[in-house]
Amino acid sequence: MKFIYRIALLVLIIAVSNKSFAQKQLSEGVITYNIAIESASNIGNLSGAQLVISLKPSLSRSDMTSSLGTETTVYDNQKGKGFILREYSGQKLMITATKENWAQKNQWNDNLKFTIDPAVTSIGGYDCKKATGTTQDGKTFVIYFTPDITIANRQYNNSFDQLPGLPVQYEIKSGNLTFKYSLSKVSYEAVAASKFEEPKAGYRVMTYEENQQLKKGN
Q: Which candidate, 180, 193, 149, 138, places its Cα nearest to that of 51?
């Protein structure tokens, strides 16, 4: 009986060890998503859009590019500040953000509730699980994520902190636009610190609060 117990315990230890070994944590590197943007209006499908997320343990940068323009978000967890760069229709805007602004900007993600289906589905070469997210107003959407890769920097932009893994495929609706994100590449390469620095010139600068007031005015 003791022999059988020891064998069972050994099998359990090996299984847990193999799972831990298989799981990778991304502390520094680059994550790239291809984005299909569909519109309910006459804009049509906007092909060629991409989201590139650059990460360090306490720094994050996301660059979203499409035929409409570009938007870059940078945040420093340690300093508790960041900025957003927007370039649309020839206009270049830099919006500065404090720790409180960052929390306000990402409160939608923080308030999500997820239900995870244990079934495994293969998407783009990744073993994924299906997570159904529910917003505060009761709307739902689906994210497929791989538990084999985790992110060390949990405060990176466009993150889903509650997910125990890396998003591989998901859709987000904003107004009459639907954004479908598909993971295309994960790189563990070093990222230059200069990539997270504020531009010195060329942008109209305003605070996060000023930008929010501007939006209300429009």
A: 180
Q: Which amino acid is at 47?
A: S
Question: If one looks up domain 25-217 in CATH, what number appears?
Answer: 2.50.20.10
Residues 132 and 142 sit within 8 Å (Cβ to Cβ): yes
Structure token digits, residue 159: 């993150």
Where do the structural domains in the chain lie, given as residue ranges? Answer: 25-217
The pLDDT tens digits for 46-92 are 668 999 999 999 999 999 998 889 999 999 999 999 999 999 998 99
Burial 44-76, CB ≥16 within 10 A → b, else e: eebeebebbbbbbeebbbbbbbbeeeebbbbbb
Amino acid at 136: Q
Rounded to an integer, what distance in angstroms lies between the CA atom of residue 179 and that of residue 195? Answer: 26
Cα-Cα-Cα-Cα torsion 99, 101, 106, 111, nearest 10 degrees, comes to 90
- Backbone torsion region of residue 108, taken as left when φ is above 0, otherwise alpha when ψ lies between -120 and 50, otherwise beta: alpha
pTM summary value? 0.83
CB–CB of 189/29 below 8 Å?
A: yes
Question: How is the chain split among helix, strand and coil, in percent rounded to 5?
Answer: 20, 50, 30
Q: How confident is the model at residue 199 (pLDDT cuts 50, 70, 90)?
A: very high
Nearest to 124 by CA among 55, 186, 62: 186
3-state secondary structure of 6: helix
